[in-house]
């Protein structure tokens, strides 16, 4: 049985880089999210996200090779992540996904991979 290409392969490295660029253009200007990213240089944040999303979407495990197991919830624990911030993150991701030059079905499938992860990061009540 032939294995179907994963999201990373169907999206492609160039589109994934575009996604990260579009996403952080929105995040860094969002009053709810920007403070979460104020202590780390933007290029470091974007590079880590690119490596993580590459792995998360089925591509090479570059994030794990450099930083170890993602353990994303544990890594985000020092930051106040509320349900409203998870929603804001998803709103930015949705806008970024829908800017990509890919077909609508792939946009829907790509975006649908994020809500579960976003709400898993919630670690504080409002």
TrEMBL record:
Instruction: Give the Gene3D superfamilies listed for this entry.
Output: Globins
Q: One GO molecular-function annotation for this sequence?
A: oxygen binding
Q: Which domain of life is it from?
A: Bacteria
Q: What UniProt keywords are attached to this protein's entry?
A: Heme, Iron, Metal-binding, Transport
Q: Does the keyword Nucleotidyltransferase apply?
A: no
Keyword flag Cytoplasm: no
Q: What is this protein called?
A: Hemoglobin-like protein
Q: Provide the organism lineage as a comma list.
A: Bacteria, Pseudomonadati, Bacteroidota, Cytophagia, Cytophagales
